[in-house]
Amino acid sequence: MMSAVNNTKFNSAVFLLTGIPGQENVHLWISIPFCLIYVISIVGNSVILFIIKTDPSLHEPMYIFLSMLAITDLALLISTMPMTLSLFLFNSREIGLEACFAQLFFIHLSQCTESSVLVLMAFDRFIAICDPLRYASILTLPRVGKMGLVCVLRGVAIILPFPFLLQQFRYCRSNVLSHSYCINQDVMKLACSDIRGSSIYGLSITLLTEGLDSLLIFLSYVMILKTVLSITSHQECLRALNTCVSHICAVLLFYTPMLGLTLIHRFGEGSSPLLQILLGYVYLLIPPVINPIVYSVKSKHLRARIIRTFVK
């Protein structure tokens, strides 16, 4: 196997994916909750997309941004689901370099795009609460569509160099990855070439995307909180804050495990491998399954539309 990895021809080299170390004998049983989570995630996000598309009353900026979030969650699931389930169900661990590079591109693209969408959703809440009279004129549907396109183009421009940088390396170390899917930090560790340039680029991109996006979201909520606290009516104050709960949950679900996983990969040399793997699965599985549930529960209009669709 190592001789294959030492070969500089990328199409003949392979990596080995990792499920849950020490639990290989129960991987088949572990696949059952994974399958359930994947099914719930795909069904939940697909239902939200269907409801928003078919109900003209939901063709508003807030719901358009929610549909963008659902699309990025589905893209993340589709990028990782086949290999993860193949590993747990059939113990199929091998993945070629080219397939691995393609997968990590789509994983990081989904991650970057979702971060951008969360910023747009924070901006939506900021305008709705701080400048409600201009909300309709600022967030027109054509402008919202252009914002979504910019999010995708931004992600492509930022993430596209990753696979090309990784292709320049020789892989002569252990060929075992830390997860059941490929991500840039994990693959980069297996190279025996000088990876400082790629590592600096990856860290810079993390700071300029997720770091900057989280800062913009934080500043948006500082302004929102300042506006809400100036409202004299306690009931109106709570009502305004209640419209932000779903978005705050989505932000915490996305950034907390992602930040932890990034820090462990870059600085946690002595950390437990099991912690890395579990945190990786939390980052991969929890946001896509929780986001549609939270938004369906918190949005009365969306919840009522879903109930009318399925209970007739």
Automatic annotation (TrEMBL):
Residue ranges crossing the lipid bilayer per the database entry: 26-52, 64-89, 101-123, 144-166, 244-268, 274-295
CC per GO annotation: plasma membrane
Gene Ontology BP annotations: cellular response to lipid
PROSITE patterns given in the database record: G_PROTEIN_RECEP_F1_1 (PS00237), G_PROTEIN_RECEP_F1_2 (PS50262)
SMART domains per record: 7TM_GPCR_Srsx
Subcellular location: Cell membrane; Membrane
Gene3D superfamilies linked: Rhodopsin 7-helix transmembrane proteins
Pfam families from the UniProt entry: 7tm_4
Keywords recorded for this protein, A-Z: Cell membrane, G-protein coupled receptor, Membrane, Olfaction, Receptor, Sensory transduction, Transducer, Transmembrane, Transmembrane helix
CDD domains named in the record: 7tmA_OR51-like (cd15222)
An MF annotation (GO) of this entry: olfactory receptor activity
Domain called G-protein coupled receptors family 1 profile: residue spans: 44-295
SUPFAM superfamilies: Family A G protein-coupled receptor-like (SSF81321)
Membrane disposition: Multi-pass membrane protein
InterPro entries documented for this protein: GPCR_Rhodpsn, GPCR_Rhodpsn_7TM, Olfact_rcpt, OR51/52/56-like
Family as reported in the entry's similarity comment: Belongs to the G-protein coupled receptor 1 family.
Name the record gives this protein: Olfactory receptor
Taxonomic source organism: Chelydra serpentina (Snapping turtle)
The organism's taxonomic lineage, starting at the top: Eukaryota, Metazoa, Chordata, Craniata, Vertebrata
